[in-house]
Amino acid sequence: xxxxxxxxxxxxxxxxxxxxxxxxxxxxxxxxxxxxxxxxxxxxxxxxxxxxxxxxxxxxxxxxxxxxxxxxxxxxxxxxxxxxxxxxxxxxxxxxxxxxxxxxxxxxxxxxxxxxxxxxxxxxxxxxxxxxxxxxxxxxxxxxxxxxxxxxxxxxxxxxxxxxxxxxxxxxxxxxxxxxxxxxxxxxxxxxxxxxxxxxxxxxxxxxxxxxxxxxxxxxxxxxxxxxxxxxxxxxxxxxxxxxxxxxxxxxxxxxxxxxxxxxxxxxxxxxxxxxxxxxxxxxxxxxxxxxxxxxxxxxxxx
Length: 303
Prior knowledge:
The chain is about 45% helix and about 25% strand. It is of the alpha/beta class.
Protein backbone atom coordinates (compact mmCIF):
# COMPACT_ATOMS: atom_id res chain seq x y z
CA UNK A 1 0.00 0.00 0.00
CA UNK A 2 1.34 3.43 -0.92
CA UNK A 3 0.20 7.04 -1.07
CA UNK A 4 -1.23 6.58 -4.57
CA UNK A 5 -3.60 3.94 -3.22
CA UNK A 6 -4.75 6.31 -0.47
CA UNK A 7 -5.17 9.22 -2.88
CA UNK A 8 -7.29 7.09 -5.23
CA UNK A 9 -9.42 5.73 -2.40
CA UNK A 10 -10.08 9.20 -0.96
CA UNK A 11 -11.19 10.47 -4.37
CA UNK A 12 -13.65 7.60 -4.87
CA UNK A 13 -14.88 7.84 -1.26
CA UNK A 14 -15.61 11.55 -1.65
CA UNK A 15 -17.14 11.34 -5.12
CA UNK A 16 -18.92 8.01 -4.53
CA UNK A 17 -18.56 7.46 -8.26
CA UNK A 18 -15.61 5.85 -10.08
CA UNK A 19 -16.07 7.92 -13.23
CA UNK A 20 -16.07 11.26 -11.42
CA UNK A 21 -13.13 10.18 -9.25
CA UNK A 22 -11.15 9.15 -12.34
CA UNK A 23 -11.74 12.52 -13.96
CA UNK A 24 -10.71 14.26 -10.74
CA UNK A 25 -7.46 12.26 -10.68
CA UNK A 26 -6.92 12.62 -14.45
CA UNK A 27 -6.69 8.88 -15.01
CA UNK A 28 -8.80 6.22 -16.73
CA UNK A 29 -11.56 4.50 -14.80
CA UNK A 30 -10.27 0.94 -15.31
CA UNK A 31 -6.87 1.44 -13.62
CA UNK A 32 -8.60 3.34 -10.81
CA UNK A 33 -10.93 0.40 -10.19
CA UNK A 34 -7.97 -2.00 -10.20
CA UNK A 35 -6.13 0.19 -7.70
CA UNK A 36 -9.08 0.16 -5.29
CA UNK A 37 -9.45 -3.63 -5.58
CA UNK A 38 -5.74 -4.07 -4.95
CA UNK A 39 -6.01 -1.88 -1.86
CA UNK A 40 -8.96 -3.90 -0.58
CA UNK A 41 -7.05 -7.14 -1.20
CA UNK A 42 -4.04 -5.81 0.68
CA UNK A 43 -6.19 -4.77 3.64
CA UNK A 44 -8.39 -7.86 3.51
CA UNK A 45 -11.58 -5.78 3.83
CA UNK A 46 -14.23 -4.34 1.52
CA UNK A 47 -14.07 -0.55 1.55
CA UNK A 48 -16.63 0.25 -1.14
CA UNK A 49 -19.86 -1.36 -2.26
CA UNK A 50 -20.29 -1.04 -6.02
CA UNK A 51 -23.75 -0.08 -7.26
CA UNK A 52 -25.15 0.52 -10.76
CA UNK A 53 -25.18 4.26 -10.05
CA UNK A 54 -21.83 4.57 -8.31
CA UNK A 55 -20.48 3.36 -4.97
CA UNK A 56 -21.16 3.56 -1.25
CA UNK A 57 -18.78 3.31 1.67
CA UNK A 58 -18.91 0.29 3.93
CA UNK A 59 -18.44 0.84 7.65
CA UNK A 60 -14.82 -0.28 7.27
CA UNK A 61 -14.50 2.20 4.42
CA UNK A 62 -15.80 5.07 6.56
CA UNK A 63 -13.31 4.29 9.32
CA UNK A 64 -10.46 3.91 6.85
CA UNK A 65 -11.35 7.20 5.13
CA UNK A 66 -10.80 9.21 8.32
CA UNK A 67 -7.36 7.68 8.87
CA UNK A 68 -6.45 7.97 5.18
CA UNK A 69 -7.22 11.69 5.23
CA UNK A 70 -5.05 12.13 8.33
CA UNK A 71 -2.17 10.28 6.68
CA UNK A 72 -2.40 12.41 3.54
CA UNK A 73 -2.61 15.60 5.59
CA UNK A 74 0.49 14.58 7.57
CA UNK A 75 2.38 13.93 4.35
CA UNK A 76 1.28 17.24 2.84
CA UNK A 77 2.36 19.06 6.01
CA UNK A 78 5.74 17.30 5.99
CA UNK A 79 6.31 18.37 2.40
CA UNK A 80 5.19 21.92 3.17
CA UNK A 81 7.48 22.10 6.21
CA UNK A 82 10.48 20.95 4.19
CA UNK A 83 9.77 23.48 1.44
CA UNK A 84 9.23 26.23 4.00
CA UNK A 85 12.56 25.45 5.68
CA UNK A 86 14.32 25.44 2.30
CA UNK A 87 12.77 28.84 1.53
CA UNK A 88 14.16 30.36 4.72
CA UNK A 89 11.16 30.07 7.06
CA UNK A 90 12.16 29.37 10.66
CA UNK A 91 8.83 28.08 11.92
CA UNK A 92 5.44 26.85 10.79
CA UNK A 93 1.92 27.26 12.17
CA UNK A 94 -0.75 24.77 11.10
CA UNK A 95 -4.13 26.50 11.31
CA UNK A 96 -7.42 24.77 10.53
CA UNK A 97 -10.52 26.61 9.36
CA UNK A 98 -14.02 25.28 9.97
CA UNK A 99 -15.98 25.48 6.73
CA UNK A 100 -18.76 27.63 8.19
CA UNK A 101 -16.64 30.49 9.52
CA UNK A 102 -16.52 33.96 8.02
CA UNK A 103 -13.39 35.22 6.29
CA UNK A 104 -13.67 39.01 6.69
CA UNK A 105 -10.93 39.38 9.31
CA UNK A 106 -8.79 36.45 8.25
CA UNK A 107 -7.01 38.28 5.45
CA UNK A 108 -6.20 41.19 7.78
CA UNK A 109 -4.81 38.75 10.36
CA UNK A 110 -2.66 36.94 7.81
CA UNK A 111 -1.33 40.22 6.43
CA UNK A 112 -0.38 41.33 9.95
CA UNK A 113 1.39 38.02 10.58
CA UNK A 114 3.34 38.32 7.32
CA UNK A 115 4.35 41.85 8.25
CA UNK A 116 5.45 41.17 11.84
CA UNK A 117 6.66 37.54 11.60
CA UNK A 118 7.67 36.90 7.99
CA UNK A 119 9.90 34.03 9.14
CA UNK A 120 6.86 31.97 10.24
CA UNK A 121 5.04 30.05 7.53
CA UNK A 122 1.29 29.76 8.18
CA UNK A 123 -0.37 26.74 6.59
CA UNK A 124 -4.18 26.85 6.32
CA UNK A 125 -6.44 23.81 6.00
CA UNK A 126 -10.21 24.03 5.52
CA UNK A 127 -11.86 21.01 7.15
CA UNK A 128 -15.16 20.00 8.77
CA UNK A 129 -15.44 20.68 12.48
CA UNK A 130 -15.06 17.01 13.45
CA UNK A 131 -11.80 16.75 11.49
CA UNK A 132 -10.60 20.00 13.02
CA UNK A 133 -11.02 18.64 16.55
CA UNK A 134 -9.50 15.28 15.62
CA UNK A 135 -6.57 17.09 14.02
CA UNK A 136 -5.92 19.10 17.17
CA UNK A 137 -5.89 15.96 19.29
CA UNK A 138 -3.61 14.17 16.80
CA UNK A 139 -1.20 17.14 16.65
CA UNK A 140 -1.97 17.73 12.97
CA UNK A 141 -3.00 21.33 13.72
CA UNK A 142 -1.69 23.91 16.17
CA UNK A 143 -5.01 25.76 16.37
CA UNK A 144 -8.28 26.16 14.50
CA UNK A 145 -11.04 28.68 13.90
CA UNK A 146 -14.64 27.55 14.38
CA UNK A 147 -18.07 28.96 15.15
CA UNK A 148 -18.67 26.60 18.05
CA UNK A 149 -17.43 26.34 21.64
CA UNK A 150 -19.15 23.10 22.67
CA UNK A 151 -16.17 20.81 22.17
CA UNK A 152 -14.73 17.81 23.93
CA UNK A 153 -12.56 17.81 27.05
CA UNK A 154 -8.99 18.82 26.45
CA UNK A 155 -9.87 21.46 23.86
CA UNK A 156 -9.95 25.15 24.80
CA UNK A 157 -12.41 27.36 22.90
CA UNK A 158 -11.30 30.98 23.17
CA UNK A 159 -13.79 33.59 21.88
CA UNK A 160 -12.15 35.96 19.43
CA UNK A 161 -14.60 37.79 17.21
CA UNK A 162 -18.29 38.51 17.80
CA UNK A 163 -20.38 39.87 14.91
CA UNK A 164 -23.99 41.08 15.41
CA UNK A 165 -26.60 39.15 13.48
CA UNK A 166 -28.54 40.85 10.71
CA UNK A 167 -31.64 39.74 8.82
CA UNK A 168 -31.54 39.09 5.07
CA UNK A 169 -34.83 39.89 3.33
CA UNK A 170 -36.05 39.56 -0.25
CA UNK A 171 -36.07 43.00 -1.91
CA UNK A 172 -39.90 43.27 -1.92
CA UNK A 173 -40.64 41.71 1.46
CA UNK A 174 -43.07 43.48 3.87
CA UNK A 175 -40.44 43.58 6.65
CA UNK A 176 -38.28 45.87 4.51
CA UNK A 177 -40.41 48.69 5.95
CA UNK A 178 -38.68 48.18 9.34
CA UNK A 179 -35.39 49.96 9.99
CA UNK A 180 -34.75 47.35 12.68
CA UNK A 181 -36.72 44.11 12.49
CA UNK A 182 -38.11 42.51 15.70
CA UNK A 183 -37.09 38.87 15.99
CA UNK A 184 -40.71 37.85 16.66
CA UNK A 185 -41.62 39.28 13.26
CA UNK A 186 -38.77 37.43 11.56
CA UNK A 187 -39.68 34.02 12.95
CA UNK A 188 -43.28 34.39 11.81
CA UNK A 189 -42.01 33.82 8.25
CA UNK A 190 -40.30 30.77 6.72
CA UNK A 191 -36.51 30.83 7.11
CA UNK A 192 -33.53 29.70 5.07
CA UNK A 193 -31.07 28.33 7.64
CA UNK A 194 -27.59 26.87 7.40
CA UNK A 195 -27.40 23.13 6.91
CA UNK A 196 -26.41 21.62 10.30
CA UNK A 197 -24.18 19.06 8.54
CA UNK A 198 -22.14 21.74 6.77
CA UNK A 199 -22.39 24.63 9.27
CA UNK A 200 -22.47 23.06 12.70
CA UNK A 201 -21.27 26.16 14.50
CA UNK A 202 -23.78 28.54 12.91
CA UNK A 203 -26.53 26.00 13.52
CA UNK A 204 -25.76 25.82 17.25
CA UNK A 205 -25.69 29.60 17.62
CA UNK A 206 -28.95 29.95 15.68
CA UNK A 207 -30.58 27.43 17.99
CA UNK A 208 -29.64 29.59 20.98
CA UNK A 209 -31.25 32.58 19.31
CA UNK A 210 -34.55 30.76 18.79
CA UNK A 211 -34.52 29.40 22.34
CA UNK A 212 -34.18 32.96 23.63
CA UNK A 213 -37.67 33.74 22.30
CA UNK A 214 -39.04 30.21 22.82
CA UNK A 215 -39.89 29.77 19.15
CA UNK A 216 -39.58 26.79 16.83
CA UNK A 217 -38.89 28.34 13.42
CA UNK A 218 -40.48 27.32 10.15
CA UNK A 219 -37.60 26.15 7.96
CA UNK A 220 -38.22 26.54 4.23
CA UNK A 221 -34.78 25.32 3.14
CA UNK A 222 -31.37 24.42 4.54
CA UNK A 223 -28.38 25.91 2.69
CA UNK A 224 -24.91 24.37 2.75
CA UNK A 225 -23.20 27.69 2.04
CA UNK A 226 -23.63 31.39 2.69
CA UNK A 227 -23.88 32.10 -1.02
CA UNK A 228 -26.68 29.58 -1.50
CA UNK A 229 -28.57 31.09 1.43
CA UNK A 230 -28.44 34.53 -0.22
CA UNK A 231 -29.61 33.06 -3.52
CA UNK A 232 -32.59 31.32 -1.91
CA UNK A 233 -33.57 34.43 0.05
CA UNK A 234 -33.38 36.57 -3.10
CA UNK A 235 -35.64 34.02 -4.83
CA UNK A 236 -38.25 34.39 -2.09
CA UNK A 237 -37.86 31.02 -0.38
CA UNK A 238 -37.62 32.64 3.05
CA UNK A 239 -35.64 34.98 5.30
CA UNK A 240 -32.06 34.42 6.35
CA UNK A 241 -29.49 35.47 8.94
CA UNK A 242 -25.96 36.68 8.40
CA UNK A 243 -23.40 39.13 9.77
CA UNK A 244 -21.72 42.17 8.33
CA UNK A 245 -18.43 40.24 8.41
CA UNK A 246 -19.86 37.52 6.16
CA UNK A 247 -21.52 40.01 3.83
CA UNK A 248 -18.29 42.00 3.45
CA UNK A 249 -16.83 39.20 1.33
CA UNK A 250 -19.68 39.13 -1.20
CA UNK A 251 -21.98 41.47 -3.09
CA UNK A 252 -25.53 40.27 -2.44
CA UNK A 253 -28.13 41.34 -5.00
CA UNK A 254 -31.92 41.47 -4.78
CA UNK A 255 -31.82 41.28 -0.97
CA UNK A 256 -32.11 43.86 1.81
CA UNK A 257 -30.11 43.77 5.05
CA UNK A 258 -31.69 44.91 8.33
CA UNK A 259 -30.42 44.74 11.94
CA UNK A 260 -32.43 42.89 14.57
CA UNK A 261 -34.38 45.21 16.88
CA UNK A 262 -33.47 45.10 20.55
CA UNK A 263 -31.25 42.07 20.13
CA UNK A 264 -27.66 41.58 21.18
CA UNK A 265 -27.48 38.29 19.30
CA UNK A 266 -24.20 37.69 17.50
CA UNK A 267 -22.18 34.99 15.81
CA UNK A 268 -18.95 34.29 17.67
CA UNK A 269 -15.76 32.96 16.12
CA UNK A 270 -13.65 30.86 18.49
CA UNK A 271 -10.03 29.83 18.38
CA UNK A 272 -9.67 26.18 19.35
CA UNK A 273 -6.47 24.68 20.73
CA UNK A 274 -5.44 21.88 23.03
CA UNK A 275 -4.81 22.44 26.72
CA UNK A 276 -1.26 22.91 27.88
CA UNK A 277 1.59 25.18 26.94
CA UNK A 278 1.63 27.19 23.72
CA UNK A 279 4.53 27.72 21.39
CA UNK A 280 5.70 31.30 20.99
CA UNK A 281 4.52 31.52 17.33
CA UNK A 282 1.03 30.40 18.34
CA UNK A 283 0.91 32.85 21.24
CA UNK A 284 1.89 35.71 18.91
CA UNK A 285 -0.70 34.54 16.39
CA UNK A 286 -3.48 34.68 19.00
CA UNK A 287 -2.35 38.11 20.18
CA UNK A 288 -2.53 39.41 16.60
CA UNK A 289 -5.99 37.89 16.14
CA UNK A 290 -7.17 39.82 19.21
CA UNK A 291 -5.56 43.02 17.90
CA UNK A 292 -7.38 42.67 14.58
CA UNK A 293 -10.65 42.41 16.51
CA UNK A 294 -9.86 45.49 18.62
CA UNK A 295 -8.80 47.51 15.58
CA UNK A 296 -12.03 46.56 13.83
CA UNK A 297 -14.08 47.61 16.86
CA UNK A 298 -12.24 50.95 17.07
CA UNK A 299 -12.92 51.62 13.39
CA UNK A 300 -16.62 50.84 13.83
CA UNK A 301 -16.90 53.27 16.77
CA UNK A 302 -15.13 55.98 14.79
CA UNK A 303 -17.57 55.58 11.91
